[in-house]
Structure formats: C-alpha cells, structure tokens
Amino acid sequence: MDEKYDVVELAVERTVGIKVTFADNYSAEIDLMTLRLICPCAMCRSLRERGKAAWPQSEGSQKLSIQDAQFHGSWGVNITWNDGHNAGIYTFQFLREIAESYLHSGLDLP
Ligand SMILES: [Zn+2]
User: Fold this and answer.
1) Which of 17, 55, 80, 96 could form a disulfide with 68 if both were Cys (CB 3.0 to 4.6 A apart)?
2) What distance in Å separates the CA atoms of residue 36 and residue 16, rounded to the nearest whole number?
3) How far is the CA of 16 from the centre of ligand 1 (A)?
4) Ligand 1 centroid to 10 CA: how many Å?
C-alpha cells in the first residue's frame, strides 16, 4: 500500500474531531461537522445526491460528538456518532483526499 494512505496515528477528540497522521508524516485535523457531512455510508451519500444535508437529520438534534471510533481492518476507521449513526467507514485514502482537497480549498462533497 502507498504509505500516503497508511495511518500511523489516529487521535480522537470526541467533541472536536480527529487528527490523522500518515506514514509520510502528513497530518490532518478534520472537525466533527466536516466528518459527519462527508459520511461515506450509502444513506448519507444518497441524501447528498438528492441535495439534502447528511446532517442534521432532525430539528433540535443534540450537539454532535463521537461516541466511538474503531479501526476497520488496516485501511479505515468506523465512527459511531452520539446519535447512534455508525454506518460510515472512512477509509484512510478518503480521509487523506478530504484533508488535501477540502481543508485547503473549501468543501466539495464527493
Ligand atoms: Zn452516514
């Protein structure tokens, strides 16, 4: 695997976001809101395709936070949100691409 997409460290700050460090020493901080809006699961993807926001789902949603984050194999991370949504598996390649494109040039949802 390309070391560009190899993660050596993943720090989760439940109420802030995640910090990912890749094997080539590139590191990126991605905030909660961004992570949730780009959720790669089929449901959120289909909402975006229909021009709807993937989050929030309802009025008066509680403040967003991460409940749990688990490595998914050696290529991704599965995030469980405080509203129970946990269908998204963020591949390291996806996180890297988000970090490099969005964080520097503005949101362009995949
Ligand atoms: Zn989702």
Assistant:
1) 80
2) 12
3) 18
4) 20
Q: How far is the CA of 87 from the centre of ligand 1 (A)?
A: 5
The terminus-to-terminus CA distance of the chain in angstroms comes to 23
Name the pTM for this structure: 0.85
Gap from CA of 54 to ligand 1 centroid (Å): 7
Provide the 8-state DSSP code for 15. T
| Candidate CATH numbers 3.40.50.1000, 3.30.2020.30, 3.40.50.1470, 3.90.190.20; the one for domain 3-55+64-105 | 3.30.2020.30
- Calpha distance 45→109 (Å, rounded): 10
pLDDT tens, residue by residue, 90-100? 999 999 999 88
25 Cβ contact list (under 8 Å, min separation 6):
none
Distance separating alpha carbons of residues 69 and 78, to the nearest angstrom: 6
